[in-house]
Design brief:
By secondary structure, this protein is α+β, with helices and mostly antiparallel strands. Helix content is 21%, strand content 31%.
C-alpha cells in the first residue's frame, strides 16, 4: 500500500443493490463540528457498524453507506529523535512534509454515515451508529430520518406517490403527489427514486424518433413529448 492510499476501500456494505421499497427506515450520523476525518477512522467505524447490524438484524436486512470520501492528503515532517539529532536536522527549513495518509473534510451537520433497513431494525441502526461515534474525534449526532430510505421524500409522501392512497369515501386513488410545485408520481429507481411529471422532455434525449423530427430518422430534432406514463 502506498503512503497516500486510503485505508477505507468499501463505502457500501450489506444489501446495497436491494430495491428502494424494501428498506423504508433510515438513520444518519451527522457531524456537529467542522473537522477532518481520517480514512483509518472511517474504516474502523464502518467495521463497527457493520458488525453490530449483522449480529442484530442479519446480513441481508440492511444497507450501510459511508457518505464521506477521503481525498485530502495529510503530510508530516518527520523529526529525528536519536542522539545528536540537532546536528543533523535543520528545524523548520524545508519543512514541507511527506504524505502520511488521507482524510475527509466534514462540515457542521454534514451526513457521515447512513443506514437503511426495515422498520423493526431502526433501533439496531441507531445503536450501530452510536458505537461508530466512538471511532471519530469531536461530536456527532445520531438522527432518525423521517424520509423513506435514502430518498428525499417523507414516508407518507413516498407511499402516496408510489402506490397511491384513498379518498374521503375510501376509494383507492392513483399514485400522484405535489412536490415543490411539480405534480407527478414516484417511480423506484434502484436504491433511490425519481419523480415522473408532465414536464416535456426532448425526444432526442430519450433516444426516440418521431415523425415530427424530420426526414432523417438517425438525427431527431427538438420534437417534444409528454414524459408521463
Amino acid at each position: 500500500m502506498s503512503e497516500t492510499e486510503a485505508k477505507i476501500k468499501i463505502f457500501d456494505v450489506g444489501r446495497k443493490k436491494v430495491g428502494v421499497h424494501q428498506f423504508p427506515a433510515c438513520v444518519h450520523l451527522l457531524s456537529l463540528e467542522k473537522e477532518q476525518i481520517s480514512s483509518e477512522s472511517l474504516e474502523a467505524a464502518r467495521v463497527s457498524a457493520n458488525k453490530h447490524m449483522i449480529n442484530s438484524v442479519g446480513k441481508d436486512n440492511f444497507h450501510i453507506r459511508i457518505r464521506l470520501h477521503p481525498y485530502n492528503i495529510i503530510r508530516i515532517n518527520k523529526m529525528l529523535t536519536c542522539a545528536g539529532a540537532d546536528r543533523l536536522q535543520t528545524g523548520m527549513r524545508g519543512a514541507y512534509g511527506k504524505p502520511s495518509g488521507l482524510c475527509a473534510r466534514v462540515k457542521i451537520n454534514q451526513i457521515m454515515i447512513s443506514i437503511r433497513t426495515h422498520l423493526k431494525g431502526e433501533d439496531a441502526a441507531v445503536e450501530a451508529l452510536r458505537k461508530a461515534k466512538f471511532k471519530f474525534p469531536g461530536r456527532q449526532l445520531v438522527y432518525v430520518s423521517r424520509n423513506w430510505g435514502f430518498t428525499k421524500y417523507p414516508k407518507d409522501v413516498y407511499m402516496q406517490g408510489s402506490t397511491g392512497g384513498f379518498d374521503e369515501e375510501g376509494n383507492p386513488t392513483p399514485p400522484r403527489i405535489e412536490w415543490r410545485g411539480a405534480v407527478g408520481k414516484i417511480q423506484p429507481d434502484g436504491v433511490g427514486c425519481k419523480l415522473i411529471t408532465k414536464k416535456s422532455v426532448r425526444l432526442s434525449k430519450l433516444g426516440i424518433w418521431h415523425k415530427s423530427s424530420g426526414d432523417n430518422k438517425e438525427k431527431p430534432n427538438d420534437a417534444m413529448r409528454l414524459n408521463w406514463t
